[in-house]
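dude i think i finally got it to work??
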Amino acid sequence: MMSPERPEYSFQKGNILALMQEFQAALPYMENAIKQDPKNADYHYFKGLVHNAMNNYFKALEEFNICLDLNPSNSEFRQSKVEALIQLGRINEAQEEQKNVGKISADSRRHPLRYEFITEVRQEHFLEGLSKKDELY
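look at this
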């Protein structure tokens, strides 16, 4: 059992709250994990996903950029950045960034909660971004 003082505890608690769509409640746990382990790209990534789910696309993009600074070869992080750029209406940047996604091999580490949350949030928000893109053209 994890101790409340450990960053993994905060991360898992935030992840569970996010899965329950309690995004506002999840943020302090994500922030606590990051405060204790600021170089953990996964913690920043999930904080970005939570912001994305709350339609805070600029904050999500900030977190995805931190992820990529910490782990530039992760295509999952890069794809999330592309989706945030689309949500912000920054289509040209998104298109340029998308070119890099296929060139990078994905980080294969996954766990069930992570995959389920990412899949659910990505599908919903990416479709919204595509509809925004159509409005721009």
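The longest helix spans residues 112-136.
im so relieved honestly
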